[in-house]
């Protein structure tokens, strides 16, 4: 996926989950943060960030914060980007062969999964999770407790029990990951639910991305350690 009208800025502060103060061309601007997660290890004062300009005159903010430099890493932190990148990866034929139907945002039980797909003789539910938390090359999810994430895993187990192929795909919004693992420190219940899902037959996939200030593209799978 690609962005337009990208500019560089310096992160100053984040008053709440939805906005940040960023210096752009020497001027302090209020910008929209496209990720409501904590991202405390990413959005630190002085960090170099990348923003996409909006052409909508009705918006209160003219910029969306989409990526940040963390040391030598460039990390995309747009929470909508993983679904877009995964959708493009699917359309390019790199996920499953012989897909006959792709439908986004499809309900099953009490949950709405990111994708429903059909292949020859099989039906699939896929939930996509974006990953921005990294330490020494190890990437983890979640960066904050997520009861919704646990519920998704429980529903994927039920879908599998009813004859669907169930998938949870962690899209790693950076390059050079060593492995993926659940964040048992921040939310042990999610890690336990992920292990139960894997034991029940849910497919666990971690996908690394090539990241540029103006683009995000899935490049390869990385090992999953449970």
Question: What is the string of helix and strand elements?
Answer: EEEEEEHEEEEEHEEHEE
Distance between the termini: 30 Å
Structural class by sheet pairing and helices = alpha+beta
Helical proportion? 10-25%
| CATH topology descriptor of the largest domain | Trna Endonuclease, Chain: A, domain 1
Any idea what the shape is? globular
Beta fraction: over 45%
From the 3D coordinates, which CATH architecture of the largest domain would you assign? 3-Layer(aba) Sandwich
Radius of gyration: 18 Å
Task: Please indicate the count of domains.
Answer: 2
CATH class category of the largest domain: Alpha Beta
**Averaged pLDDT:** 96
Q: How many individual helices?
A: 3
Low-confidence runs of at least 5 consecutive residues: none
Quaternary structure classification: single chain
Biggest pleated-sheet summary: 6 strands, mixed
Number of DSSP strand runs: 15
Quickly describe the structure.
This protein is an alpha+beta fold and 226 residues long. It folds into 2 domains: 70 residues, OB fold (Dihydrolipoamide Acetyltransferase, E2P), CATH 2.40.50; 141 residues, Trna Endonuclease, Chain: A, domain 1. The chain contains 3 helices and 15 strands.
Question: If you had to describe this structure to a student in words, what would you say it looks like?
Answer:
With about 230 residues, the protein is of the alpha+beta class. The protein has two domains: about 70 residues, OB fold (Dihydrolipoamide Acetyltransferase, E2P) (Beta Barrel), CATH 2.40.50.580; about 140 residues, Trna Endonuclease, Chain: A, domain 1, CATH 3.40.1350. The protein has three helices and 15 strands. Helix 2 packs parallel to helix 3. The protein starts with 5 loop residues before the first strand and ends in a 5-residue tail after the last strand.
């Amino acid at each position: 996926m690609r962005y337009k009208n990208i500019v560089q800025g310096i992160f100053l502060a984040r008053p709440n989950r939805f906005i940040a103060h960023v210096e752009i061309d020497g001027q302090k601007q209020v910008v929209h943060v496209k990720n409501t997660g904590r991202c405390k290890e990413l959005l630190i004062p002085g960090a170099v960030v990348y923003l996409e300009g909006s052409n909508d005159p009705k918006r209160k903010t003219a910029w969306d914060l989409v990526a940040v430099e963390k040391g030598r890493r460039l990390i995309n932190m747009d929470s909508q980007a993983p679904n877009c990148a995964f959708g493009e990866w699917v359309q390019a034929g790199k996920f499953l062969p012989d897909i006959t139907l792709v439908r986004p945002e499809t309900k099953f039980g009490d949950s709405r999964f990111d994708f429903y797909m059909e292949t020859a003789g099989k039906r699939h539910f896929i939930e996509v999770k974006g990953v921005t938390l990294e330490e020494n090359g190890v990437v983890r999810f979640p960066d904050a407790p997520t009861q919704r994430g646990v519920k998704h895993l429980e529903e994927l187990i039920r879908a599998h029990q009813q004859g669907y192929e169930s998938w949870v795909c962690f899209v790693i919004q950076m390059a050079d990951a060593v492995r993926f693992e659940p964040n048992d420190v921040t939310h042990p219940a999610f890690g336990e639910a992920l292990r139960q899902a894997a034991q029940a037959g849910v497919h666990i996939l971690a996908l690394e991305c090539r990241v540029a200030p103006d683009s995000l593209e899935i490049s390869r799978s990385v090992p999953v350690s449970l």
